[in-house]
Amino acid sequence: MGYAMAKNLRARIPAEDVLIIQDINTAATKQFVEEAGIQKIKVADTVRQVAEEAETIITALPEPQHVKAVYSAMLDPPTLLTSTSIQSPRLFIDSSTIDITTSAEVAALAQGSKQGIFIDAPMSGGVVGAQAGTLSFMVGCEPEHLERASAVLMMMGKRVLHLGRQGAGLKGKLANNYLLALNNLATAEAMNMGVQWGLEPKALANMINLSTGKCWPSEVNNPVPGVVEAAPSSRGYEGGFGVGLANKDLKLALKDAHEAGVKIVLGDVAKQLYDAVEKDEKCKGRDFSVVYRYLGGKE
Questions:
Q1: How far apart are CA 267 and CA 1, in angstroms?
Q2: Which secondary structure element, helix H or strand E, spans residue 19, and what is its range?
Q3: Beta strand pairing status for 123-124 and 91-94?
Q4: 86 and 141, same structural domain?
Q5: Tally of domains in the chain
Q6: What is the band of 126 on the pLDDT scale with cuts at 50, 70, 90?
Q7: Whether 138 contacts 173, CB under 8 Å
Q8: What pLDDT, on a 0 to 100 scale, did the predictor assign at position 114?
Q9: How confident is the model over 201-247, as pLDDT tens digits?
Q10: How many Å separate Cα 230 from the centre of its chain?
Q11: Are 188 and 292 in contact (CB under 8 A)?
């Protein structure tokens, strides 16, 4: 997703500005530079270099430990050199989906170092949304920083949803992805139920999507192959939102919910199923709608 987001940023920032990129995958950064042509791109050797030379720093990482490591490398020691091109306080935007506690720790590190402003802005829309520039960002920041952050985020998406102060964006994202994981499982069960009863899959999906059962997994990402031609299920569940990532987000949501004393009924049962799906040789590494296959659905 970060690759596509960076492409949209480069296309929309002023031509004279330099986009600085850094990734442990050097093949990806090399390809990015080649595709950019004459556009101004600089590949940084370290994340510390990015923080020293950029006014706005956007991070998008898989796991909490990765976010911690990157921000520690950028901000410890808290004596960043400042490029003459930096006119405003640095803005650190973390678009990773991580747990609330880790995000708060990273925010404290960024703000305690007095090296800039930190906001959480996890995203929704997947790889397709990143490529199309239609991502939705759930933002947690002080109101006075929203306008500046929104200007950057709208270069990569079409919605900026401000949910409150730092941490609020992440809380909203985890609640959303918790619901998504359950909807995905329920859709797979309902479609499997109807197909096993002899209903034609497309007719069943059309009825659901015109009725109260409509949801994103039923309408856009239907788990039955052939129902939605563009859905991962129609290409062997390749691409899309990996079941491992869906399970990770569910785990994070459950962790933070339990720590807050929130009563959970469905989530813990769903987590057991996603654990099993992620380990299954026929399912692991595939889009999370592959739960339909795990349930024995007809393909």
A1: 27
A2: strand 19-21
A3: unpaired
A4: yes
A5: 2
A6: confident
A7: yes
A8: 85
A9: 999 999 999 999 999 999 999 999 999 999 999 999 998 899 999 99
A10: 20
A11: yes
Give me 249's structure tokens: 């987000």
Q: What is the 3-state secondary structure (H, E, C) of 183-218?
A: HHHHHHHHHHHHHHCCCCHHHHHHHHHCCCCCCHHH
Question: What distance in Å separates the CA atoms of residue 180 and residue 17, rounded to the nearest whole number?
Answer: 38
Instruction: Report the CATH number that the domain containing residue 187 is assigned in CATH.
Output: 1.10.1040.10
Show which residues are catalytic. 173
Radius of gyration of the chain (CA): 21
Average pLDDT estimate for 96-101? 95
- The gap from C-alpha 134 to its chain's centroid, in whole angstroms, comes to 13
Q: Residue 86's pLDDT is what?
A: 66
Secondary structure (DSSP) of 243-290? HHHHHHHHHHHHHHHHHTT---SHHHHHHHHHHHHHH-TTTTTSBGGG
In this predicted structure, the answer to whether residue 78 has a pLDDT above a threshold of 90 is no
Q: So what's the pLDDT on residue 211?
A: 98
Which residues does residue 119 pair with via DSSP β-bridges, in sequence order? 93
Nearest to 249 by CA among 155, 126, 70, 142: 126
Residue-range definition of the domain harbouring residue 134:
2-165
Tell whether 187 and 152 lie within a shared domain. Answer: no
109: phi then psi, degrees, rounded to nearest 5? -65, -45
Instruction: Report the chain's mean pLDDT, rounded to a whole number.
Output: 94
Q: Give the number of other CB atoms < 10 A from CB of residue 196.
A: 11
Predicted confidence (pLDDT) at residue 80 exceeds the cutoff of 80: no
> Are 170 and 100 spatial neighbours (Cβ–Cβ below 8 Å)?
yes
Task: State how far the Cα of 20 lies from the Cα of 22, in Å rounded to an integer.
Answer: 7
Strand partners, 120: 94, 140
Banded model confidence at residue 83, pLDDT cuts 50, 70, 90: low
Half-sphere exposure (Cβ direction) of 234: Cα atoms closer than 13 Å: 11
Helices (H) and strands (E) in the chain, counts: 13, 8
The one-letter code for the residue type at 60 is A
